[in-house]
Write a structure and sequence with these properties.
Blueprint lengths: L6 E4 L9 E5 L4 E8 L2 E5 L22 E9 L8 H9 L7 E11 L2 E2 L5 H11 L6 E3 L2 E3 L2 H10 L4 E6 L9 E9 L2 E11 L5 E7 L2 E8 L4 H11 L3 E4 L3 E14 L12 E6 L1
Parallel strand pairs: 1-11, 6-8
Antiparallel strand pairs: 2-9, 2-10, 3-4, 3-5, 5-6, 6-7, 10-11, 12-13, 12-16, 13-14, 15-16, 16-17
Length: 276
């Protein structure tokens, strides 16, 4: 049984409020797990069934008629979530990467819809029946302390935190301001080296050893800053092919991004400002 998950809004800054709980934001893949008629099924947030991809979760000991929500991750040698390794595991169950299903909510329990219970009560219910294993863990949470928890994510290069109203209902299939995510972005300076033709995307490069090294494609830029780029790039064109227009790297900008990929690219870069 698929249930469309509740989604979060973004906020720029963490805060301390005892009417909210704070959780670690996990860098993985959202996963809905249901058990009906002794059959466990797994779904991504977009209703793609992925039961066959994760056989290690099929023996989970929960009652029939139960649907839980969580994030599936792979950790690196330091115990930190590794999104690239997670994607390798997602694409092939032959991958050696071991997964963990980090569960943070319950939507149905023994056939009853519990989504309208306050979040803290759902947490207590979840903790009463879900027994952690090597593959299945309960996401830890605390009241308030959003600022201190976020500082820890910065100190340990983790993805960020999630702040949720302690009395919030689980709003199936909706994005709600009751749940907020604060991303621990990294920042750097980059040069715009070209643009994609078919859909918006700017090629980025970073300076390394006196040369410009490719750093990925930036898709997130507001309309005002895009207009500035369109006004300036034509005089900088060097060459083009059927996919890209390449320009002289004279436009410099500040970008924020999640982390560096294993090949040194910026993961999900977003424009912050031009640097003159």
């Amino acid at each position: 049984m698929f249930v469309s998950p509740m989604l979060l809004h973004k906020t720029d800054c963490p805060f301390d409020d005892d009417e909210y709980i704070t959780e670690l934001k996990l860098d993985g893949i959202r996963l809905i797990l249901s058990k009906f008629d002794d059959k466990v099924r797994l779904y991504t947030r977009h209703n793609n069934e992925v039961t066959a991809k994760f056989p290690e979760l099929l023996s989970i000991d929960i009652p029939n008629g139960t649907v839980i929500d969580g994030e599936i991750i792979v950790t690196d040698s330091e115990g930190k979530p590794d999104f690239e390794a997670m994607m390798e595991r997602f694409q092939s169950k032959r991958s050696a990467h071991r997964i963990q299903y980090c569960v943070f909510d319950v939507i149905y329990y023994k056939g009853d819809k519990v989504a309208n219970l306050p979040l803290v009560e759902r947490k207590e219910l979840l903790e009463s029946f879900l027994q952690p294993t090597q593959e299945i863990v309960l996401v830890q949470w605390m009241h308030g302390n959003g600022e201190a928890y976020f500082k820890l994510t910065q100190d340990h290069s983790l993805e960020g935190v999630v702040l949720k109203k302690a009395d919030s209902a689980y709003k199936i299939g909706k994005r709600s301001h009751d749940w907020l995510k604060v991303i621990n972005y990294q920042y750097t300076e980059a040069f715009i080296t070209g643009m994609r033709k078919d859909e918006f995307g700017l090629l980025l490069g970073v300076e390394e050893g006196g040369k410009i090294k490719p750093a990925g494609i930036m898709e997130f830029m507001n309309q005002t800053d895009r207009r500035t780029f369109y006004q300036r790039y034509r005089n900088l064109i060097i060459e083009e092919n059927n996919k890209f227009i390449f320009i002289d790297p004279q436009l410099k900008c500040r970008v924020k991004f999640r982390n560096y990929t294993k090949d040194g690219k910026l993961r999900i870069p977003s424009f912050v400002e031009y640097i003159s």
